[in-house]
Every structure is written in structure tokens, then in C-alpha cells.
Design goal:
Two copies of one chain form a homodimer. In chain A, helix 1 (8-18) crosses helix 15 and helix 10 crosses helix 11 (425-432). In chain A, a hairpin with a 3-residue loop joins strand 1 and strand 2 (72-74). The longest helix of chain A has 37 residues, at 287-323. By secondary structure, the first copy, chain A, is of the alpha+beta class. Among the domains of chain A are: 8-141, Butyryl-Coa Dehydrogenase, subunit A, domain 1 (Orthogonal Bundle), CATH 1.10.540.10; 160-287, Butyryl-CoA Dehydrogenase, subunit A, domain 2, CATH 2.40.110.20; 441-592. Chain A is built from 17 helices and twelve strands. Chains A, B: Residues 36-157 form the Acyl-CoA dehydrogenase/oxidase N-terminal domain. Chains A, B: Residues 286-452 form the Acyl-CoA dehydrogenase/oxidase C-terminal domain.
Chain lengths: 598, 598
């Protein structure tokens, strides 16, 4: 079982060359975050991730969270202590805005730190992610009194938060929600209903849990326009803010899942004793909009999870490949590597893993940087927000689908040992498998990309992005650096093809809605591949510039950035072309059959 | 948890239209197998698979095989009884040749039956597969006395067989084997050593286990040319053939694996008490050749496992998609499906799964039919054997890689429920994950395809196959049936591209050995995709011919065969083009870095 070491250099390179960290820090407005501080934060986070969270990853997997009668859930050994250390070190509130009591770190920097938590221990990281998502929804939509009660302990991590959307009959389709909320007359509500798939819905790592619950008021219209959001704490806060009386809610069971065993996935039963007390968050019937506040942020972070698990799978595979002696690679002599990294196909898998991970990291960091820009008051804020909206489903969909390939390759590099659970490679595959499902399946991301992003502005934001990519690709292609010229030549037709499929999908939207919907997932994959490869090419250009400018630069590291970008161009871009062909030609066969013919 | 129902109609269609079952039966020479019998065999096998083996699949997964002190291994509840029923019904020896005491069924028919066992309960099926592989090796290489002792109980299934190749330091690289065999002077040998990853290496479902063990004689040359094969029974046969004294071998432990929990994977320790008694199989130092006898057959069957698990994953996903109500698919009205099969992306996944499964089945059955042809004495026997040799690594590599995608999609169709183990979808993903690894990883298959098949004859056998495909594609393209013409037009450039990459790889072999090796896996994937899509197009042509000829034909079923072929052409063939681009352009970046840069 390998340990995780944060890829500090690669992350810092991506933060600067692709995320533009210096500019983000300069615009951030809080002098507390300069480059030196940012590097120190990354170092400390790397240490905490490697020393505290990573060693618990396997324990969490083997032991899992444990449910017992009465709805008590105990986290795996060490998780409660790690959570205490995590909040005492101030990590819990680091990404939260200062106005909610957080440290207000730039999103870009927080994103790198979150990647570390997720690589080190994805199951553990979910508790903070859900809590801060709930913080965001409460801070934006709840009234001042509720914010004053709930936010301080939640930001600090003494209380955690959950997202109670799903019911047995209502998963992707929230219109089918049946949970009910009845006013008590004193400004509160009594909530009844059953919610499933509630991540960290019950546990013993914090003193209270604030459930954000979607439910219907008595006068609610049907469908998604009749859903309201309620804050329903496990223990009702006393006047002094401390957790008081136990609320009428219970964890009925936890799921036996393929992975993320350390993260309890609860069935929550509200109001078996007459109704759990809750407070309305936001306006009546506006619950979906409030929930989306937390969901959009979570989507970016789940995309990041794909990168994080992929990175850990890569590290484990690399370590095994550098250690395992098994035949000498073809064409190698006595002086060459005697370990399996000498085998060309092992190298191919490692390079594929790396190209996917680094493209995914580039997508996530680039989008995070745009979030910082959008939060600012600069001239580009609105344009940055439009890019965030466009890219969020791409980051979520592409990075998590990519993680399926990366973690499968991670097992494959280990050969037979990869199939043995003790090795740890299989856990990454199992953990990664949820990421394409929760916070909206890949199809939901892909439909969001078309229906709510591309089609709403006729593809304008995407077109502007793709024109910029095309222009940069042409510049590289016309330049005199062979490696960059090759990247430019590979990108030019790929981006032209993407512009064409965007136009095709926008044109189909509406008149050929089913043909369009049959192609949204391949289209999202094409989109993510092209944009990801572009960002890696930008990184390569930055690496080349450093090599040109600084004789003392670490040539091995910088040339690796160029090689990874080139690998992405030669191995990933052909997949974009294949996806484009499916977008163009594939819908008819997808829709050809009657239900009875399946 | 869904049950398995053998897709009898689809299998029979593939057996006839793609495998040429009538011709195979006619040439088989045993009047016992006519079409009526074949159909009856399939019906009975389908019943046994569905009623006896399938219900144990989940029990095997949950309970697993259990090891206890002293090296006793108990199979999961019901497995021993099922194995007894299996052999009593005569299924165990069905695929074995009559000269070994088997029923001598045509390979093509046995292949369909084996597919059912593997779909119903992959873990269970491995015991028979390994045993019959051992039977093949013993029958071909052991002397008459050993055959007389071992074969009858093994063919019948009263004794089972294993394949003891791997040692901790010797996995894919058998040259590193250290186990030793010392002659006793009475024609026997004393074997010492430790073997790992021994499938069904110890269990309680049969009265004896014959281990085939690779070990070195005292005078053995180093490397693979110094390995000999020995039969080492758990209980030494008495003169009357019954199992007698316990041999000096013990199961030291069994592995905790990602999947196939019902199949015990043993660490076997030979000779802790001075040496396990064994008999030489074949000539000294010729063990590898003997082992390949059993391995080649196993490779085809592991490829079939990919198809079988994919089929079961498809059935579960289809069932869920037809039952789960969750939003109405875009563009659908009140009268249309209210279940998730109405969602275009769910249909896309189901069609992808199906296209991959049916292409894989076509590849496996086509190759099995060539094995029957090769076993015969017809004029085409040698050519058929050459095709079997060429296609065996393709079937193994392509179908098992394909199963990774199919079983992942199977989880995805289930949404959040797919991640819950009780649903059963995740088991298929876990079970399938071993298939790209054991019996030679995908890279080993791909290297075999290039180094031992394509390069040995300069690509002649492949060229002849591809010329035939090109000619058929042209005929379809020029025909007046639009669906077939579209298939022909899609296949023509794909097969031309495959011919070009075959020539490129053959040219690279030797002078650019590492560049070639970096591209063998994408090349195998391209190869399998094109040949699989061709075979599906053949099926489509046969379906069209039936539609044209017979007004009473089941149009819904036959048009589905055409639609699946079309889906493969529009969704899978673009992947072949992407793989071809990687073969052409991808090796440089794969090989660009030093070990230290990973």
C-alpha cells in the first residue's frame, strides 16, 4: 500500500502556468495571501495530507463506517481524531469566505489544497466538502439569525453539514420529491420524510450535524417549483448556540457500497416522532435554486476528486513500476532498467494516466482561477463567471470519466497484484467509481452543458473560448519551437472540429432534442479533451519559456511538462476526434430501437 | 439483484450467422450433434445456468471461499452441491474430446455453453475451465499410464485441475521461476517451491486436485528453456485409481481479491515436508510448450469471459432501465416510456454495451468455429489454425478490455443504486477487472499478436483476412440495401487503415522494437474493433437476407441485429480510427521520458 505525497511541484506549476496564481493573488485583495504564503500553505497541507489523512485511507476502506441500533454511526478508527486535528489546524474553514468566518483563501489555492485531501483520503474529504457546500447555501440564502447560529460552528468544522436531496423515488429527478414541511406557527417547520444516499449523514466526528433538506410546503405547487430548503440540525441549538435537544431524525441504516467505505452513506428518516424541527432557508418554493448554490461548487470539487484519485492511482502505479522486477523491456540492454517501467506498454499506461490527470488538473485549476476572477470586481468578472458556468459541467464530467480509465490502468500496471486488495490499487478504482454518479451523473452534466450553457447563448461563450484556443494553436504552429509547433498543429483541427460539433448540437437543441441528447456525453468528452489538451499546451509553452529564459531551470521537470502535453496531443486528442464522429453520426443508431427490442 | 437468462436467440443467431454452426456440425463427423441436438443442448445449458449457477453468483461474492488453519478451503455455500450437479448432468466433460473421455462437442457449441456458465457464475466456471485446460495439457503431453490414471476423473470432474505457473518473483516473466523438481529414481520427482495466484488451488468441491506445476530439474538450463511441467496430485492415486495418501503440498493462504470471491485464489506451498511427489508431463525442459497448450485454450475462454460478464451486466442494466421511473426522457410525451430507458443517454449506454458484447461474441464464436475447422481434416484446416493463432490474442485482449467499459456502463445505468453492492452491478465490474490480467495481460496478448503472429509471416494471414473484409465491405457498400451499404462504407476506410497499421507495425518490428511495442495495445484494440464490426456486419447481412426471404421472420429481432451492427459502426469504429492514430503517432511521447522523470 503506497503512501500519498502531494505532487507539490506539478501542482505549483499548474497553479502558476495554467491558473495564473500570481495574478489571482494580486487581485485577491487580501494581503495575507502572497506567493510565499501560498507556497507555505501548500507545504503544510502536503504534510497534513501525507502524514495524517493518507495513513487512514486504507483503514477507512477496510473497516468502513459502522452503524448500530438506534442509528449510531461510528467512523473508522482514527477519523474522529483526524477531523479534530484538521479543524484545529484551521484547514476546515480555509476555503470558506471571510464573511462567513472562513479564511477566505483564493479558490485557486483552496482547490490545490482540496485536491490533496481528496488524494490522501477521499472518504474523509467528503465531510468537509459537504459542510462547506451547506455553509455556502446557508450564507447566501438564510436569514441573519440562522446564519449567526449555524455558520460559525460549521465553518470551523465543529458541526458538519449534509445535502438531503435524494429520496427512493427521486434521484436525478427532484420533481418527484415527497418529503413534507409543515409550519409550526413559531417560524419553524416540522419535516417528515425519508432521504437516501446522504453522505456523512450520521457520524461521530463532530458534535452536531446540520441537514439541508429539500421538502414540500403544504401549499407547494407540483414539480421542482414546489420544493423548499430547510436547515434541520441533529441537535437543536440552545440559545447560547450549543447543541441541545435531539431532533426527531434518525439514521435508519448506512449503505454497503463499492467504495468510499470510510464515508458513511446514510438513509435518513425525518419525523418518525411527529416531525423534525427545521428552519426555512431562502424563500418558499425556491429550494432548488438554493440547493444549486451548493451543488455547483460541489460539482467542481467532484471533478477535482477525479483528478485526485487519478493522481493517487498514478503514484501507486509509478512506485510499483519502478520497483517490480519482471523481465527486461524489449530493446533494453544490461545497463537499462530491469524493472517493469522499462516495458513500453507500462510506460504507455503511466503516460496516459499522467496526461489525463494533468489535463484534468489544468481544467479544474483554470476554472477555479476564473471563479476567483468572477468573485472580484474587475472588468472581466462577468465573462469569468460565464466561463465558470460553461466549464463546471465539463470539469465534473470529464475529470470523473477520466478517473475511471486512470484507476483501471492503475490496477493494470500492478498486474495480478493489482487485483489483490492489500495492494491498494483496487481501492482507487472502487472509490473513483462514484464520481461519475453523485452530484449529477455524467449525462446530467452533459445535458447541463448543452441545455443550460451552450444553447442559452447560442454557443457564444464557448465560441469565444474556442476562438482563443484556435488563435493560440495557430501561433504555436507557426512558431519555431518544434514541440510547440506540433502541439499547435494537433490542436488546430481538433478545436475546429469542436466548434463544428458545438454548432451542430446548438442547432439540434429544440428541433432535434432527442438526437442532441443522444450525443451530449460524447460531446462533453470531446469538449473536455480539447480544452484540457489546450491548457496542457499552454503549460508546455510556459515550460519552454522558462527553459529559454533561465539556464538554471530544472530542465528535466520542464521538459516533462512538454512531453506530457505532447502525449495528451497524440493519445487523447484522437479520442476527441472519435467522440466528434459519434456526435455527428451516432444518434440515429442510439435511438433506433423500441423499448421491446432491448 | 437480477438473474441471468441466457440470450438464447442472440446466441443461436451468432452461432449460425457468424459461426456457421450448420457447417461446423456437418463437418464435425459425430452424428450425435445435429442442429436439433445443438438447440436442445443450449436449452438445457440455459436452464442449468439460470436455475443452478446464477443464484449462487451473489452468495459466492458475499461469502467468498474460506480458508482455515491447516490449509483447508471451503467453497461458498452451495458451490460443492452445484459442482456435483454439474458433473452429474454431464456438463463437466462436454467440451473435452472423446479420446480423453469427454463428449467431444464441437468447440463452437461448447463455447456458447461456456459463455452461459461464465455469465451465470464466473467464479464457479473457472474451476471447470482450469480442469479442462489441464486435461488438454496432460492428454497431449503425458505418457499413456499417467493419462489413464488422471484423465478419466478429471474429465468427469470428480478431480479438478490447476495451473501452477506464477511465483512471487515470476509473473509474466516465467524465466524467473525457481521451483525445483528432483528425480526420486523411481520415475517420479520431488517438487519444492511456492506458487501464487493459483485459481481453485484448494477447495472442497471435488475429491482430488491435480496441480500442473512448472519447476526446474537439477540440470536445467537457465531461463524459460529450463522449465519442466509436472503433475502433482493433492492425494496420490492408489493402484485402483482412487485418491490415496496426502501429498506434501498445502494451501498456505487465499487472497482477498477485488472480485471473483467465489473462486479461491491460493498460495500453494509444495514440499515443506521434503518434496511433493509428481510426474513429469512431456519432455524435460519443455514445460513451457506444454503449458501453452492449456494457456492458448484458456486465453480464448478468458476472452469469452469478457463477453459473458458484459452480457450479464447488460441484462441487469436493461432490466433496471425498463423498471426505474425517473423523469421522462427529453422529447417524450405522455404515451411514451416513463422509465429511464426513455432517456437518450441511457439508450446510448445500453446500445454501446450491446454492440461491444455482440462484437466480442462474434469474435469468440468466429474463432471457435475456426478451431473446429482446424481440428478437422478438411483442406482449410491449416488456414483455419493460422486464423485461430492470429485471433486468439485479439479475442482475449479485446473482449476483456471491452468488458471494462461495459461493466462500468452497467454501474452507470443504475445511477446511485449501481454503487450499492446489493444491486449487483458493481460485482460485474469487480469480477471483470481480472480478465485483462490473468492468462496474460493485454500487453502480453498485444505483443503476442505482433511478435509471434503478425511479424512471423510478415502479416500474410492478417492481410488475407483484411482483404476478405475489404472485399465484403465493398460489396455491401455497392449494394442497394441502405443499412448494409452504410456498414460497408464505414468498414472500407477502417479496414484500409488497419492494413496500414499492420504493415507499419511489422516494419517497425525489429529495427524499431520499442516504438512497435509502445503501440501494440492500441493496435490490438484497433484490430479487434475492425474485425468485430465486420463480423457484426456479416450478421446484419444475414439478418437482411432472412428478412428478404421469409415474410414470417421475426422482423423486430432481425432489425435489432442490423441496428446493433450500425451502432458498432458509428460508435466503435471511430475508436479504431483513434487507436490507429495512436499507433502511427503515439510511440515517441510514450518513450520520451527517463525513468527519473516519472
Amino acid at each position: 500500500m503506497s503512501d500519498y505525497q502531494a505532487p507539490r511541484r506539478e501542482m505549483l506549476f499548474a497553479l502558476r502556468a495554467i491558473g495564473g496564481l500570481e495574478a489571482v493573488l494580486a487581485a485577491h485583495g487580501d494581503d495575507a495571501y502572497d506567493m510565499e504564503t501560498a507556497e507555505a500553505v501548500l507545504d503544510e497541507a502536503a504534510r497534513f495530507a501525507g502524514e495524517v489523512l493518507s495513513p487512514l485511507n486504507r483503514i477507512g476502506d477496510r473497516q468502513g463506517a459502522r452503524w448500530s441500533d438506534g442509528g449510531v454511526v461510528r467512523a473508522a478508527d482514527g477519523f474522529a481524531q483526524a477531523h479534530a486535528a484538521f479543524r484545529e489546524a484551521g484547514w476546515h474553514g480555509m476555503p470558506a469566505r471571510t464573511e462567513f468566518g472562513g479564511q477566505g483563501a483564493p479558490v485557486l489555492l483552496s482547490t490545490a489544497v482540496l485536491e490533496m485531501w481528496k488524494s490522501a483520503n477521499m472518504a474523509f474529504s467528503l465531510c468537509q466538502m459537504l459542510t462547506l457546500g451547506a455553509v455556502e447555501a446557508i450564507a447566501r440564502h438564510a436569514d441573519a439569525a440562522l446564519c449567526a447560529t449555524l455558520l460559525p460552528p460549521m465553518v470551523e468544522g465543529r458541526w458538519t453539514g449534509t445535502m438531503n436531496l435524494t429520496e427512493p423515488q427521486a434521484g436525478s429527478d427532484l420533481a418527484a420529491i415527497r418529503s413534507r414541511a409543515v409550519p409550526t406557527g413559531d417560524g419553524r417547520y416540522r419535516i417528515t420524510g425519508t432521504k437516501i444516499f446522504i453522505t456523512w449523514g450520521e457520524h461521530d466526528v463532530a458534535e452536531n450535524i446540520v441537514h439541508l433538506v429539500l421538502a414540500r410546503l403544504p401549499d407547494a405547487p407540483p414539480g421542482v417549483k414546489g420544493i423548499s430548503l430547510f436547515a434541520v440540525p441533529k441537535f437543536l441549538p440552545r440559545d447560547d448556540g450549543s447543541p441541545g435537544e435531539r431532533n426527531d431524525l434518525v439514521c435508519a441504516s448506512i449503505e454497503h457500497k463499492l467504495g468510499i467505505h470510510g464515508s458513511p452513506t446514510a438513509v435518513m428518516s425525518f419525523g418518525e416522532g411527529g416531525g423534525a424541527l427545521g428552519w426555512l432557508v431562502g424563500q418558499p418554493h425556491q429550494g432548488l435554486a438554493c440547493m444549486f448554490t451548493m451543488m455547483n461548487h460541489a460539482r467542481l470539487n467532484v471533478g477535482l476528486e477525479g483528478v485526485a484519485i487519478g493522481e493517487r492511482a498514478y503514484q501507486a502505479a509509478r512506485e510499483y513500476a519502478l520497483m517490480r522486477v519482471q523481465g527486461r523491456g524489449i530493446g533494453l540492454g544490461e545497463g537499462d532498467s530491469a524493472t517493469i517501467i522499462g516495458h513500453p506498454d507500462v510506460r504507455r499506461m503511466l503516460m496516459d494516466m499522467r496526461a489525463r490527470n494533468e489535463a484534468g488538473r489544468a481544467l479544474a485549476y483554470y476554472t477555479a482561477a476564473r471563479m476567483d476572477e468572477a468573485h472580484g470586481h474587475g472588468a472581466g468578472a462577468a465573462a469569468a463567471q460565464a466561463l465558470v458556468d460553461l466549464l463546471t459541467p465539463v470539469v465534473k464530467g470529464w475529470c470523473t470519466e477520466s478517473a475511471q480509465r486512470v484507476t483501471a490502468d492503475g490496477v493494470q500496471v500492478h498486474g495480478g497484484m493489482g487485483y489483490i486488495e492489500e495492494t491498494g490499487a483496487a481501492q482507487h478504482l472502487r472509490d473513483a467509481r462514484i464520481t461519475t454518479i453523485y452530484e449529477g451523473t455524467t449525462a446530467i452534466q452533459a445535458n447541463d452543458l448543452l441545455n443550460r450553457k451552450l444553447a442559452r447563448d447560442g454557443g457564444a461563450v464557448a465560441t469565444a473560448l474556442l476562438q482563443r484556443i484556435a488563435a493560440e494553436a495557430e501561433t504555436w504552429a507557426a512558431g519555431h519551437v518544434p514541440a510547440l509547433a506540433a502541439l499547435g498543429r494537433a490542436l488546430s483541427p481538433a478545436v475546429a472540429e469542436l466548434a463544428a460539433t458545438c454548432a451542430l448540437q446548438v442547432a439540434r437543441h429544440g428541433p432535434q432534442a432527442r438526437e442532441a441528447a443522444a450525443a451530449t456525453v460524447p460531446h462533453l468528452m470531446q469538449f473536455g479533451t480539447v480544452v484540457g489538451c489546450w491548457l496542457l499546451a499552454r503549460g508546455a509553452a510556459a515550460a519552454q519559456a522558462q527553459l529559454d529564459a533561465d539556464a538554471a531551470a530544472d530542465a528535466g521537470f520542464l521538459q516533462t511538462r512538454i512531453a506530457v502535453a505532447r502525449h495528451a496531443a497524440t493519445h487523447l486528442l484522437p479520442e476527441a476526434a472519435a467522440a466528434a464522429a459519434v456526435v455527428r453520426e451516432g444518434s440515429a443508431s442510439t435511438l433506433a430501437l423500441d423499448d421491446a427490442q432491448f
